[in-house]
């Protein structure tokens, strides 16, 4: 019996992990045993730890690269490890710069095709920034193509953070999506919340009855996708994240910062940062806090993390030496 796969796509900070947490909770409420493959650009795992704290699902992690390119060879091994745990379904959360078509193609490889079936691709859009991406990344054609592919490949498109923009902006985003995808179900969401029953109820029935996989509502036909210019393998310069850099900033031993210091630092680097996240030590908190910077906003959440604090910064052409120097200066 093939394991159903749902792929979560979308640019950095759009709300994929928030959606994944919701889907895991909904899956368990329906008596389903989910598995998760998480892919992160940075060397430190942040999103996987978030899931560990809030859900406890079986998780495989691929760090410091994109499964479409540098981690593609590890994808099959990670999925096979999940299959051995006999989940009822598998969620794959991609990095913000991954082309979901490449994952659809990878699932047709021998060894995976026999054991799993792609059911849906869900793409999450950040309504505050989607319309600006073409101009923001005008110097990086490959990245623009990849963001377009994320819309083209989707069965569901969530126009997320709908509460932060006007209705006219939401209308423009929907029209923009329809330029590239006239079949996807488009939903306007806040905190990535939408009705998951149409996705999960057929999987629940399949898990209980073992009905033929064809009983699923499969919108995408895998095995027919073509490789986009953004992800052709031979040349590293052709990869969509060729200009995207990650820098991990550690906390000096026993040092702490205030929320104001961290928020000011993020604000000062906001022109260069696409995303920042990590576990930080604050002067007024006995335990580490989860900090997430996305869309020029900083979010805070209590955490059970007990390791060495750190922040992962993701941006285009980040000046690592300057970033690290200014970070170090914060503690002096």
Automatic annotation (TrEMBL):
It catalyses: GTP + H2O = GDP + phosphate + H(+). Keywords: Chaperone, Hydrolase, Nucleotide-binding. InterPro entries: CobW-likC_sf, CobW-like_C, CobW/HypB/UreG_nucleotide-bd, P-loop_NTPase, Zinc-reg_GTPase_activator. It comes from the Bacteria. Residues 244-331 form the CobW C-terminal domain. SUPFAM superfamilies: Hypothetical protein YjiA, C-terminal domain (SSF90002), P-loop containing nucleoside triphosphate hydrolases (SSF52540). Belongs to the SIMIBI class G3E GTPase family. ZNG1 subfamily. This is GTP-binding protein. It comes from Paenibacillus hexagrammi. The lineage of its organism: Bacteria, Bacillati, Bacillota, Bacilli, Bacillales.
């Amino acid at each position: 019996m093939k394991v159903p796969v749902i792929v979560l796509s979308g640019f950095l900070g759009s709300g994929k992990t928030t959606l994944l947490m919701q889907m895991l909770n909904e899956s368990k409420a329906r008596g389903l045993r989910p598995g998760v493959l998480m892919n992160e650009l940075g060397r430190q795992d942040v999103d996987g730890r978030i899931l560990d704290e809030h859900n406890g699902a079986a998780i495989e992690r691929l760090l410091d690269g994109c499964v479409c390119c540098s981690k593609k060879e590890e994808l099959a091994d990670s999925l096979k490890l999940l299959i051995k745990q006999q989940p009822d379904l598998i969620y794959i959360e991609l990095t913000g710069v991954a082309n979901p078509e490449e994952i659809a193609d990878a699932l047709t490889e021998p060894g995976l095709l026999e054991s799993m079936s792609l059911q849906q691709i869900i793409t999450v859009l950040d309504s505050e920034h989607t319309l600006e991406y073409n101009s923001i990344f005008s110097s990086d054609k490959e990245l623009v193509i990849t963001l377009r592919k994320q819309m083209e490949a989707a069965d569901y498109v969530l126009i997320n953070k709908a509460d932060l923009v006007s209705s006219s902006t939401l209308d423009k985003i929907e029209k923009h999506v329809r330029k590239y995808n006239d079949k996807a179900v488009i939903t306007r969401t806040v905190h990535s919340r939408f009705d998951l029953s149409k996705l999960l109820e057929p999987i629940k029935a399949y898990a209980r009855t073992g009905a033929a996989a064809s009983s699923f509502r499969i919108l995408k036909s895998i095995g027919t996708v073509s490789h986009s210019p953004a992800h052709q393998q031979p040349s590293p310069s052709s990869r969509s994240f060729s200009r995207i850099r990650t820098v991990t900033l550690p906390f000096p031993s026993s040092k702490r910062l205030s929320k104001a210091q961290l928020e000011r630092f993020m604000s000062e680097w906001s022109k260069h940062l696409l995303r920042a996240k990590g576990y930080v030590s604050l002067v007024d908190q006995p335990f580490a806090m989860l900090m997430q910077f996305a869309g020029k906003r900083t979010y805070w959440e209590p955490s059970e993390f007990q390791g060495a604090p750190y922040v992962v910064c993701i941006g285009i052409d980040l000046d690592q030496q300057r970033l690290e120097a200014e970070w170090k200066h914060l503690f002096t």
